[in-house]
Each structure stands twice: as structure tokens, then as C-alpha cells.
Amino acid sequence: MREFEYTAPDSTERALALAGDDTAFLAGGTMLVDLMKLGVTAPRRVVDINALPMRGIRAGADGLRIGALERMADVADHPLVRERYPMVSQALSASASQQIRTMASMGGNLLQRTRCGYFRDVSSPCNKREPGSGCPAVTGANRMHAVLGTSEHCVATHPSDVAVALVALDASVRLRGRSGTRTVRLEDFYRLPGTTPHLENVLRPGELITEILVPPLPWAGRSTYLKIRDRQSYEFALSSAAVALDVRGNTVVDARVAVGGAGTRPWRLPAVEAELTGRPADPTTYRNAAARATEGMRPLTENRFKTVLVRRTVVRALSSLGG
């Protein structure tokens, strides 16, 4: 690990003033410290933001508001989150381990870097870590990699569970930088890799995520997050689905569907939502809708199974809610 300067400002203004091109913000540290130890990142200055006023969990008529410094475990266990937005609580509870969830911040989770082995191995080429060096995962070990939103320059999956649930709920993030505050839809916050996979989101230099905003959705109480993985604890998704259904009588009136473990960013499925809406809440509808989840998929040599797994994950999640 390279030597670095550590500072812990007591105001957001001071933290932003300290930010520079070679600066990293530290919240829970469950990702940053790990990557610093591996040599993947080596900031010259680390700014500890834990004293900043970016906490609070509030659910009301305007939706759900979560401070970026709230710990994942606290949000998962919050009674209003469990009751009104169960897919968020379930996605958080399916993430990492209890120890990490107790430390990791919500903002940090949304900003976590890919777990691609080539990215984390500094002896391997990686366009995310070193632009222009290549992407060995395209033809190499790619069982865990993406089938949606990929390019010849990067096929790494986005690792966050809760980001999938939040994208399904059309959440936004509040950002603050030296030039002021702005709000960005989370789905628009993440960039596709294209030719610049090292640019993973739309954060400007020195900007912070300060708050997560989930719009009101009265029927979000009928929602779930299903995660398929190689083992039950501390493992990233091979496939996951965040689903919310508004069912009246036996008809699906509205739906929200997003998947994880398959895309280079959390992947909303509007075609699946459209196929569900206005149709009976039954297995035939769920299978027909899930078939559209594979549109645009580009499987690799070792992850072709994901085309089937994603469909089955969506069907299972829908069936658990709609019967």
C-alpha cells in the first residue's frame, strides 16, 4: 500500500475543498481499503467523511429518503423499509456478510467497483483499471461476467444488490460538489462501458452522493428480491431479480422488474414490465414476460447458462409475489 495523507473534516464544505484528482472519500472502507491493499487504487489523500451530516432514514408521503452514510444493516432492519419497500431490505440482507453490512455505507455500496478477478489482479490487463490495456475476460474466465450491456472493452458485472432494487423502484441519488447540488436517476447514474469502461458513473470530480431518494409507490409493499448464487453467504449474484407487482383481482395492473448479476450495470427490464401489465397473474404470463428478459443478451463462452438462469430467476420472483 502506498503512503497517503489521511484527514477527517467535520463539514461537507471542508471535505469538498479537500477533494482532488488523487483523493478518495472514505465511509465504511469495506471496498476502498481492500483495493488499496491490492494496489488497484492508490490515492495520495484519503478524506474520511463519517462526520458529515449525511444520515437518516425517513419514509413518508414523498417516498423513502436514505442518507448516504447510513449503514446497510441499519437500512435493511428499519421497520418502514421492511414494510413499504421489502425488496430493498431483502437486497441489503442478501449482500456480503453481516459484519460488512454493519460497516458499509449505502453510498459506498452504490459506488463499489466490480469484483472481476482481472480488475483486482494488478498483474493482468484491465481496461477499467488501466484504459487501453485490454479485457482478457472477453475470451478468458468469464463465468461470472455480464451478458447485458457489454462491449469488447469490458464485460464486468455490476456487483451491487441493492442498486438493482433501487433501479427497479426508479430511485435517484442526490449529489453534492463544489458547484452545488443535483439529482440524478440511479439508472442514469451508471454508465455503460462502451469504449471507456474506466468511467463507471456520472460523478464529477470531487462530488459526493449525499442521499438516496425513492419515490412513493403504494404497491411497493408487494415486492421481493431474489438472488441466485453459488453459496448462500458472502457471494455475488449469478442472477438476481427485483420485482414489484400491483395485482388487482387476478390482473397485473403495474410492474417493476430489474435484474442483477447479468448486466454491466443494474438492468431495468421495461419490456418484461410491459408484457406483464394488463395480463392475468398466472404462470403463463410470468413465463411469457420473462422470455423478454433475454433480449439483447450477448453471452460469452462460459456464461451462456445465464440466458436461461435470468429467465428462471424472473419467473420465480414473479411467482413468489403473484401466485
From TrEMBL:
Q: Which UniProt keywords apply?
A: Oxidoreductase
- Xref: InterPro entries: CO_DH_flav_C (IPR005107), CO_DH_flav_C_dom_sf (IPR036683), Diverse_Substr_Oxidored (IPR051312), FAD-bd_PCMH (IPR016166), FAD-bd_PCMH-like_sf (IPR036318), FAD-bd_PCMH_sub1 (IPR016167), FAD-bd_PCMH_sub2 (IPR016169), Mopterin_DH_FAD-bd (IPR002346)
Which PROSITE patterns is this protein grouped with? FAD_PCMH (PS51387)
Q: Residues in domain FAD-binding PCMH-type?
A: 1-219
Q: Does the keyword Iron-sulfur apply?
A: no
Q: Which SUPFAM superfamilies match?
A: CO dehydrogenase flavoprotein C-terminal domain-like, FAD-binding/transporter-associated domain-like
In terms of Gene3D superfamilies, this protein maps to:
3.30.465.10, CO dehydrogenase flavoprotein, C-terminal domain, Uridine Diphospho-n-acetylenolpyruvylglucosamine Reductase, domain 2
* This protein's name: Xanthine dehydrogenase family protein subunit M
The organism encoding this protein is Streptomyces macrosporus
